[in-house]
Design goal:
heterodimer, A: about 675 residues, mainly alpha, two-stranded antiparallel ribbon, 25 helices, B: about 550 residues, disordered C terminus
C-alpha cells in the first residue's frame, strides 16, 4: 500500500455535527423523546471512530512522510491571507482522532445510563456531540484558524456542559468562569497567530512549520514571543498555573462530561497544540524552559491540593491538573512523543476513574434519594466500604488507580516514567539545571499521586460504610455503565505497551512484555516531530543515556515503581487503621491541611486582586467617567449653548432705543475693522 | 445573469430601491390605518426582493462604481442626482434592505399608537439611509445624511420610553453638530474645485481630485471625521448612543444599531481615506483614532459589563464593536479594512438581533432590567437558544460572523500597529466578561420570580424575524468568501489610491512638482458613458495645472 488515500475524512468531523443537529432538534421540539438520542448520540461518535480506524489502518501500511491536507472550501481569502477550511491527516491527528472518538464513544455509552432520568437528556447528547465535533475540528484542522474554531468551540461546549444544570447558580457560575478564563488563553493564541502571519505570511501548519527553521533566528525574540503566546493558549485550555482555577470548578458538570472534556480530551488540547507546534518551541530555549517549569510546578502544586480534598471529583480534578502538568513537561522538554503518550494513557485511566467516580456518585445519589438524606453524594467521607456493593466498579477503579500511580506493567508506568526520564535526558546545555530540577519535582509529584489516589480508593471503597441509612440502597451500576469501564480498564493495562522504552524492554522483569512494541509511538510520531527533534539535536545535543546520580532510564523507572508500591502499601495500611465518620460529624481541617483543603486560597487571591478590582473599576468607570465626565461634558456643551441663547434672548428687549444703539455700535465696529486693515 | 439583463435591472434597480420606500411612506400615511403595518412590511419586502439581485448583478472584479446614473438636479450649482454602488456600499445596502422588513415585522406588537406615522417614518428612514449609501454627489449625500435624522428623531421622541424627549434631542444635536462642520468642509471642496477648474461640481469623483495641502487635508479631515466619529460612535462622542437605545422603541434601536451607525464607518472608507490620504495616513492622526478605538473596545466593554439595563448593556457593546472597525480601517491593510466591513455587517446582524430579542422580552415582561429576569431558559427554550447563540456570535465565537470580523481587523491591525492590536485583542476577554454574566442572570439560574414562570416561547412571527439574522451570522462565519469577494477589489483600489496619494500636494515645494494624478486611476474609477466624464483626462490635466498655479501663487 504505497499511496494512501484518506477514507471519508470529512465525515469523521461531520457525523458528530449531524448528531448535534438531530439531538438539538429533539431537545427543542420533543424533549421527552429519549429513544432517538440514545441511538444517535453514541452512534455518530461510534461511526466516526470506525472511520478513523479504517484510516489508521491505511496509514499504518503506507508510511506517510508528509501530512495529507484536504481542503474543503476557501474560508478567509483576503489578499495574502488565504485560510481554507481544511483538515490535515497525519500521525498525530489520527492518533488524537482515535482517542477522541474512541474514548468519546465509551463515554457517550456510559452517559446513556448515567443521564437516564434527566429531563435534559436530548440536550445533553446534543452538547456532547457538538463537543466531539469541535474537538475533532481542533485536532484535524490543517491551519491555526481552523484549530482555533475547534479551540473556542470546545470551550463553548465546556461552558454549556459545566452549566448543564443551569438552574443551580453555582454550576452556571462555574461554566461562566471556565469560559472567561479560557478566553485569556484564547487571547494568547490569537496574538500568536497574528505574529506567525506577520513573519511567515501563512497560517497553514505545513507552510509555517516548513518555513520556521529558516525564518526564525534560534532563540530569537520573535519565535520566543510566538511560542510563549501559544503557550498562554495552552495554559488556559490545559489548566496550568496560573489559569488552572477553572478546571476544579468545572466539576459542576455531569460526571461523564468531566471524564470526556475535563480529563480525556479537551484539556489535553494545550498539550496537542505544543506538540503540533513543536518546531516553534524547539527554536526557543526560553519558551521550552518556561513550559517545562510551568508544567512541573503545576504538577506538584495541584497534587498537594489533591492530597486533602474530600469531594471525590475534586480529587480527580486536581489529579487531572497535575497529570496535565506532566504532559506539559513532556512536550516542554522536547519529548513530544512522551507528552502525547501520557496524553493517551491518561485519557484511558482518567476517563476510567472519572466514570468510576460517576458510577459511585450515581449510586450514592440514588441511595440518598431513597432515604431522603440531605447528604453530599460526592463527599468521600459519606462513602466507605463500597466494594461490597459495587465490586465491579471497585476493581476497575483500582486498575485505574494503579495505572495512574505508575505501577508496572500498567499504562501509567510507561508513560509517566517516559516523561520523568525525558526531563533528565534533555537536561543539558542551557537546560541542565532547570530540567534536572524539573525531574526532581516530577518525582515528588508522582509520589503524591500514588498517595492521593490510594487515599481516594480507601476512603471510597474500603473500611466501614458511612452512608447512614442510605447505605442499604447502594447498588452496582448497570451494564451500560460498567461495560465502558471494563473496556477502559483493559486499555489502562495494555495501553502503555505500545511504547515501551528500549532500555526497559532490555531489563529483566520490567521488560517481560513482547519486544515488538518497543517505542512504537515514538516511531509513529517521528515524522511529525522530526524537525523539532532535529533542531534540538543540532543546537543542544543528543539525548543523554545516563540521568542524574548516574542511573539510566530503566534504573529510575524501577526506582519510581518501587516507591509507588511502597507508598500505596503504606497508605493502605495507615488510612485503613483510621477511624472515620460521615461528613456532618467530621471536624474541619486545621493548620496546613486547611490551607491545602482551601486550595492555597488561590481563588480568594484572584478574587481580591483581579475580579473585584475589575468589577469595581467597571462600576467606577461607568458612574464617574462615563456619566460623570464624558456625558456631563457633552451635556455641558448643550447647557452652554442654551446659556448663550438665553443671553442672546435677553438682547431682544423690544426696546427700539437699544436696537438703534446696537446698530450704531455694530456699524462702528465694522468700520473700525475695515479701516484698521 | 441573463434574466437581469433582459429586464434592464442595472438601469433601474438603484432608483427603485432608493425611492420605493419614500413612495411607500405616502402610501402608508394615507392608506387605511388598520393595514398600515402590513403595507409597510409589504413595501419593505418588495424593496428587499428587488435588492437581492444586486448580490448577483454586482461585478466583484470591478473595483469602481457600478449601477451608476447621473441626472442634473440643481444645475446652477452643479448639483446632480448621482448614484452608484461599489464594493464598500453594496453589502451595506443589502444589510439595510434586509434589516428593514425584519425591524418592521418586529414592531407589530410593540408599536400600538399612531401606526401610520410610525411606519411612514420607518420607510422615510430607509430612503435616507440607502440614499446616503448610494449618493455620489456630495450635496446629495449631505441631504440624505440629514434626512435620516428627522425620522429617527421622531421614532425616538414619539414612540420612545420615559426620557424619550431628552434622548431624541441629544441624538439630534450630537449628530447635527457633527454634520454641520462636514457641510462646511464639503463647501470648501466645492469652492476650491471651482477656483481651480472654473467648473461647478459636487460630484464625488470630481472633488476626489482636488489637490489639497497637508494642512488643508487635516482641517477637512477633522471636519468630516467629527461627523463620522459621532455617528459610529467613538469614545468620547458616544454618550448619545446608550440614551438613544434605551429610549428608542425596538425597531428604532434595531435600525440605529444595525445600519445607522454603519454610516459613520462607511464615511471613513468613502471619504476620509480617499479624500484626505495624507491626513488619513498621518502617524499622529492614525494613532489618535486607533487609541480612541481601543478605548472603545476596552472601556466600553467594562462599562457595558456593569449595566443593570440589558438594552444599555448592548448599546455599550456597540461602541466596543465599532472600536474594532476603527482599528481595521486605520490599519490601512487589506485584511484590516475587509475585516472592518465584515464587523460592520456582522454587528448589524448580531446587535440587530439582540435588540429584537430584548424587545420581544420587553413585550412579555415590560422591563429591560437584567435583575428582573432569571432562569428563562427553562421557561422558553427556543428563545434561550437563539438568544445565547446571538450573544455568542456577538462576542465573536468562531463559526459565526463575529469571529471573522474581529480576527481580520485584529490581524490587519497587527501588521501595521502590533501593540495596538495586542491591546485590542484583550477585547475578546472583556467581551466574555460583559456578555456571559448577562446571559447567566437572564437565562440561567433558578426561575425566582413568579412573573417569569409562564412566559410564552417565541411565536411564529418572532421566529420569522430572527431566523434570517441567525442564518446570516452563520453564513458569514462559515463561508464568508462571497462577502469578502464582493468587497475585495474596491478595497484593494482604495488602499492603492491612499498609498499613491499619501504624499500631499505641498504648495511650497517649488522644486519638485506635485505627483501627477495618474490618468489610469481616474479611468479606473470613472463612471460609464452615461455620466459626463468623457474628458476626465482633461479635467485632471487642468487640475494638475491649476494646482501648480496655486502653488505659484502661494509661493509669492
Amino acid at each position: 500500500m504505497e499511496n494512501f488515500e484518506p477514507t471519508l475524512l470529512g465525515l469523521i468531523v461531520l457525523l458528530p455535527l449531524v448528531g448535534f443537529l438531530i439531538n438539538g432538534a429533539v431537545a427543542l421540539f420533543t424533549p421527552g423523546n429519549k429513544g432517538v438520542s440514545t441511538w444517535v448520540g453514541p452512534g455518530v461518535v461510534g461511526l466516526a471512530f470506525l472511520i478513523a480506524v479504517v484510516n489508521f489502518i491505511g496509514m499504518f501500511g503506507a508510511e506517510l512522510t508528509a501530512p495529507i491536507v484536504r481542503s474543503y472550501w476557501s474560508w478567509m481569502p483576503v489578499g495574502d491571507l488565504q485560510v481554507d477550511a481544511a483538515l490535515q491527516l497525519d500521525q498525530l491527528s489520527i492518533l488524537m482522532t482515535l482517542i477522541v472518538t474512541g474514548v468519546g464513544f465509551l463515554i457517550h455509552v456510559f452517559s446513556v445510563g448515567y443521564m437516564k432520568g434527566d429531563p435534559g437528556y436530548a440536550r445533553y447528547f446534543a452538547f456532547l456531540n457538538l463537543f466531539v465535533f469541535f474537538m475533532l475540528t481542533l485536532v484535524l484542522g490543517a491551519n491555526f484558524p481552523v484549530l482555533f474554531v475547534g479551540w473556542e468551540g470546545v470551550g463553548l461546549c465546556s461552558y454549556l456542559l459545566i452549566g448543564f444544570w443551569f438552574r443551580d447558580r453555582e454550576k452556571a457560575d462555574a461554566g461562566k468562569k471556565a469560559f472567561i478564563v479560557n478566553r485569556i488563553g484564547d487571547f494568547g493564541l490569537l496574538i500568536a497567530m497574528f505574529m506567525i502571519f506577520a513573519h511567515v505570511g501563512t497560517l497553514d501548519f505545513v507552510g509555517v512549520f516548513a518555513a520556521a527553521p529558516e525564518t526564525f533566528v534560534y532563540g530569537g525574540a520573535v519565535v520566543t514571543a510566538i511560542a510563549l503566546f501559544l503557550f498562554l493558549g495552552a495554559v488556559g485550555k490545559s489548566a496550568q498555573i496560573p489559569l488552572y482555577v477553572w478546571l476544579p470548578d468545572a466539576m459542576a458538570g455531569p460526571t461523564p462530561v468531566s471524564a470526556l472534556i475535563h480529563a480525556a480530551t479537551m484539556v489535553t488540547a494545550g498539550v496537542y497544540l505544543i506538540a503540533r507546534s513543536s518546531v516553534l518551541f524547539a527554536l526557543s530555549p526560553t519558551a521550552m524552559m518556561t513550559v517545562a517549569i510551568v508544567g512541573a510546578v503545576t504538577a506538584l502544586f495541584a497534587a498537594t491540593i489533591g492530597l486533602v480534598q474530600t469531594d471525590i471529583k475534586k480529587v480527580l480534578a486536581y489529579s487531572t491538573v497535575s497529570q496535565l502538568g506532566f504532559m506539559v513537561v513532556g512536550v516542554g522538554v522536547g519529548a513530544y512523543a512522551a507528552g502525547i503518550f501520557h496524553l493517551m494513557t491518561h485519557a484511558f485511566f482518567k476517563a476510567l476513574l472519572f466514570m468510576g467516580a460517576g458510577a459511585v456518585i450515581h449510586a450514592m445519589h440514588h441511595a440518598f434519594h431513597e432515604t431522603h438524606q440531605d447528604w453530599d453524594a460526592q463527599d468521600m467521607r459519606n462513602m466507605g466500604g463500597l466494594k461490597r456493593f459495587m465490586p465491579k466498579t471497585w476493581i476497575f477503579m483500582w486498575i485505574g488507580t494503579l495505572a495512574i500511580a505508575g505501577v508496572w506493567p500498567l499504562a501509567g508506568f510507561f508513560s509517566k516514567d517516559e516523561i520523568i526520564w525525558m526531563a533528565a535526558a534533555h537536561a543539558q546545555g542551557p537546560f541542565e539545571v532547570v530540567f534536572t530540577l524539573v525531574w526532581v519535582i516530577l518525582f515528588i509529584a508522582a509520589m503524591l499521586t500514588a498517595f492521593y489516589m490510594t487515599r481516594l480508593m480507601i476512603l471510597t471503597f474500603h473500611g466501614e460504610n458511612r452512608s447512614g441509612p442510605g447505605g442499604r440502597h447502594i447498588h452496582e451500576a448497570p451494564a451500560v455503565m460498567w461495560v465502558p469501564l471494563a473496556i477502559l480498564a483493559v486499555l489502562s493495562i495494555v495501553g502503555g505497551w505500545i511504547n515501551i522504552p528500549r532500555p526497559i524492554s532490555a531489563t529483566p522483569i520490567l521488560g517481560w512484555i513482547p519486544p515488538w512494541h518497543t517505542e512504537w509511538l515514538h516511531y509513529w510520531l517521528a515524522p511529525v516531530t522530526a524537525t523539532a527533534d532535529n533542531v534540538f539535536r543540532t543546537r543542544v545535543g543528543e539525548l543523554l543515556e545516563v540521568g542524574p546520580f548516574g542511573g539510566g532510564e530503566a534504573f529510575w523507572a524501577a526506582v519510581a515503581f518501587m516507591i509507588a508500591m511502597v507508598i500505596i502499601a503504606l497508605t493502605t495500611v495507615w488510612l485503613g487503621k483510621q477511624e472515620r465518620k460521615p461528613a456532618v460529624e467530621t471536624p474541619p481541617y486545621r493548620g496546613f491541611a486547611k490551607v491545602l483543603y482551601d486550595k492555597w486560597y488561590v481563588d480568594e487571591i484572584y478574587d481580591a486582586v483581579i475580579v473585584r478590582p475589575v468589577v469595581n473599576g467597571s462600576r467606577a468607570l461607568w458612574r464617574y467617567v462615563d456619566d460623570g465626565i464624558v456625558d456631563r461634558a457633552a451635556n455641558g456643551v448643550g447647557s452652554l449653548a442654551r446659556g448663550l441663547g438665553w443671553l442672546g434672548s435677553r438682547l431682544q428687549t423690544g426696546n427700539l432705543n437699544v436696537y438703534a444703539l446696537a446698530i450704531v455700535a455694530g456699524a462702528l465696529l465694522i468700520l473700525l475693522t475695515v479701516v484698521g486693515l | 445573469m441573463a434574466f437581469l439583463d433582459t429586464i434592464g435591472y442595472a438601469s433601474w434597480a438603484v432608483h427603485f430601491i432608493l425611492w420605493t420606500p419614500l413612495v411607500g411612506m405616502a402610501v402608508v400615511m394615507f392608506g387605511p390605518a388598520e393595514r398600515a403595518k402590513e403595507l409597510a412590511l409589504g413595501i419593505a419586502l418588495l424593496v428587499f426582493a428587488v435588492s437581492v439581485p444586486l448580490w448577483f448583478a454586482f461585478n466583484p472584479a470591478d473595483g469602481g462604481f457600478q449601477f451608476t446614473a447621473a441626472v442634473p438636479w440643481i444645475t446652477d450649482w452643479g448639483i446632480y442626482y448621482r448614484v452608484g454602488i461599489d464594493g464598500i456600499s453594496v453589502l451595506l445596502i443589502l444589510l439595510t434592505t434586509l434589516i428593514m422588513p425584519l425591524a418592521i415585522l418586529g414592531s407589530f406588537r410593540y408599536i400600538v399608537e399612531r401606526e401610520r406615522t410610525f411606519y411612514g417614518m420607518m420607510l422615510l428612514l430607509q430612503t435616507g439611509i440607502i440614499g446616503a449609501f448610494v449618493a455620489l454627489d456630495l450635496f446629495l449625500f449631505f441631504v440624505f445624511w440629514e434626512l435620516m435624522l428627522v425620522p429617527m428623531y421622531f421614532i425616538i421622541g414619539v414612540w420612545g420610553g420615559e426620557r424619550r424627549i431628552y434622548a431624541a434631542i441629544k441624538f439630534f444635536l450630537f449628530t447635527a453638530v457633527g454634520s454641520l462642520l462636514m457641510l462646511v468642509a464639503i463647501l470648501y471642496l466645492f469652492f476650491k474645485y471651482r477656483m481651480l477648474t472654473g467648473d461647478l461640481s459636487f460630484a464625488y469623483l470630481d472633488l476626489l481630485n482636488v489637490p489639497l495641502t497637508f494642512t488643508e487635508q487635516v482641517w477637512l479631515f477633522s471636519a468630516f471625521a467629527l461627523a463620522f466619529v459621532i455617528k459610529v460612535p467613538i469614545f468620547p462622542f458616544h454618550t448619545w448612543l446608550p440614551d438613544a437605545h434605551v429610549e428608542a422603541p425596538t425597531p428604532g434601536s434595531v435600525v440605529l444599531a444595525a445600519v445607522l451607525l454603519k454610516l459613520g464607518s462607511y464615511g471613513f472608507l468613502r471619504f476620509l481615506l480617499p479624500y484626505f490620504p495624507a491626513a488619513a495616513t498621518d502617524a499622529t492622526i492614525v494613532l489618535v483614532l486607533m487609541v480612541l478605538g481601543l478605548i472603545g473596545i476596552t472601556y466600553a466593554a467594562w462599562v457595558a459589563a456593569v449595566q443593570p439595563d440589558a438594552k444599555k448593556l448592548v448599546a455599550y457593546t456597540s461602541v466596543a464593536h465599532m472600536g474594532f472597525v476603527v482599528l481595521g480601517v486605520f490599519a490601512l491593510t487589506l485584511q484590516g479594512v475587509q475585516g472592518a466591513i465584515i464587523v460592520m455587517l456582522s454587528h448589524g446582524a448580531s446587535t440587530g438581533a439582540l435588540f429584537l430579542l430584548l424587545g420581544m422580552l420587553y413585550e412579555r415582561r415590560h422591563t429591560r432590567t437584567i435583575a428582573d429576569f432569571g432562569g428563562l431558559a427553562s421557561v422558553m427554550p427556543v428563545f434561550a437558544t437563539i438568544f445565547v447563540f446571538t450573544a455568542l456570535a456577538s462576542i465573536g465565537l468562531p463559526g459565526t460572523s463575529g469571529f471573522i470580523g474581529e480576527f481580520l481587523t485584529l490581524l490587519g491591525a497587527f501588521q501595521t500597529h502590533p501593540w495596538i492590536a495586542l491591546i485590542g485583542a484583550t477585547g475578546v476577554i472583556f467581551a466574555a466578561y460583559y456578555m456571559l454574566p448577562m446571559v447567566q442572570r437572564m437565562w440561567y439560574n433558578e426561575v425566582d420570580k413568579p412573573e417569569n414562570r409562564n412566559l410564552p416561547d417565541l411565536s411564529r412571527r418572532e421566529l420569522t424575524v430572527l431566523v434570517p439574522l441567525v442564518v446570516v451570522m452563520l453564513w458569514m462565519g462559515v463561508y464568508p468568501k462571497p462577502f469578502l469577494e464582493r468587497t475585495e477589489q474596491t478595497v484593494v483600489e482604495l488602499l492603492e489610491g491612499v498609498e499613491r496619494n499619501r504624499a500631499p500636494v505641498r504648495p511650497r515645494l517649488g522644486a519638485s512638482p506635485p505627483p501627477p494624478m495618474e490618468v489610469v486611476t481616474v479611468d479606473d474609477r470613472a463612471m460609464p458613458a452615461a455620466v459626463e466624464t468623457s474628458n476626465t483626462g482633461d479635467v485632471v490635466a487642468e487640475l494638475t495645472e491649476a494646482g501648480r498655479e496655486g502653488e505659484a501663487r502661494h509661493g509669492d
